[in-house]
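Below: protein 1.
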Amino acid sequence: MKNNVKPFEDIDRWLSELDSIQNCSAHTLRAYKNDLYSLQKHLGKKTIRHATLLELRRWLAELAKSNPQPSTTTRRIASVRSFFKWMRLTGIRQDDPARKLSRPRVPQKTPHFLDINEASEVVEKPAQSGWFATRNKALLELLYGAGLRAAEAAGLNKENIYLESCMVRVLGKGNKERLVPFGIPAQQALTELFNLIDGGPKSSVFRNKFNKRLSTRSIWQICRDAGDKNDLPKLHPHALRHSCATHLLAGGADLRFIQDQLGHSSISTTQRYLHVDLPRLLDSYRKSDPLDNIDLNSPSAQPPKKPSSD
């Protein structure tokens, strides 16, 4: 076994394998890197491959002084566990002290969502003006109408949008592809945006002022600005995603449909929406909903065929 390794060498090798072999998302890789680099810096000159259980616990104890959320501590422990498991499987270590780290109990949060009127205000009255307002409205309509994650919206190309059938082909977590319906308002907003942007099928849908792909951070800021404008402070993309799911549930959609819509790998994640306060939504739902009452059985709403690679 190689002993004269540099402090971050093992970490970088593992991250490279995750990126090239397991196709982990950029967000996941960034979180792993931040956690493991933090541990290596805590160890000083001692390489992470030689870390003991006591040192792992001391690192977590040091980080605990800043009172992180239980979910943050859980993520850090998961990062370390995954990395030490890889070291054991590849023969770098014979033992795995990270297996003995206990994770804190993370309370199950009820998803935050907007009511129908609040969601309508946000997506129809975004911040900024001119071309930016057109882009922002299309973005917000799609986040809400299709229940997309911010990273999924950022990664969309024009070829992923099927305007006629109101469908979008999304690349979600773990590079899992799914086909998701969206409503007439999103169709109209996207049509208006497409009339203003150039580029071929593989060009990005949502762009910044430099005509480059919009970043996930910028999408968060657009949501925050739209919320501030409509007296809904600290609005984030996931609130629109949660609102889409909650309104679908209020309208009678079953959990399996919502699971497919959101791209959840486990139905237990989708079941969180059973705990929201639905009664206040039922009256307003009949007036409007994320999919604008699309008849998913009509010919125009059928999924388009995936384009060939030729």
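Below: protein 2.
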Amino acid sequence: MVDSELYKLIVIAVVLMIVLVLFVLLIFSVSKRRILDEISKSQQKEIEFSKALLKNSIETLESERTRIARDLHDGVTSKLNVVNLNFNLLKAYDSPNAETAKLIESIHGSINESIDLTREISHNLISPSFTKFGIETALESLAVQVNQGNALSIELQLNHDWHLFSKMDQLHIYRIIQELINNSIKHAEASKIEVSSIQKENEVSFAYVDNGKGLENHEEFESGIGIKNIKARLRLLGAHAESLTDQPGFHYNFIIPKNV
């Protein structure tokens, strides 16, 4: 009888210990889940804050670009045009000797070059075509401008609806393509650039290809200011990108979800 009672007590004690262990494990699991949820929420807040900060920085940059471009166009370019006009009037009154005439023509040429350079800088800062007519016209204008040099040709095959993207998102896409073109002009030694897009159910896929010498130093490319600016804009678009190094030339693909 005593052994039976002792056996029962042992069984009850073991059961209680098992229940206690399970209870402790349950509390630990719930606590761990809460901690992980708090960490996840904190990380999400940090990501949202970082994205908002990046968005504000780029919007401030674009605003400053617009201001500088306007100042260049309305201030510097206008003054240079006045100087150029007065210089032309001065030329009409004087009858200089050959050496002086050569110097005058040199100065006149420098003034015209300054006007063209100022206008080019102003247009690079903010495209008038983009502001007035939108991204499609701006990209076509950019392609025409590059194609005029005959050393490099750009072919655009953009087969998607631009209305899927907001005005600011379109500006991000324009800046990305503009930076990629600048990279090809400066470093690729390419003669042809192709920019294409495909609209899918939930995303729009862009492909940029040039027939240049490709990436000689991938790490140097990834650490450049240009690609960092591109990645910042891709991040705001919620996009992901890849540069293909196993093919001739330079290939850069980026995919943007439709719900940006």
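The mean pLDDT is 78.
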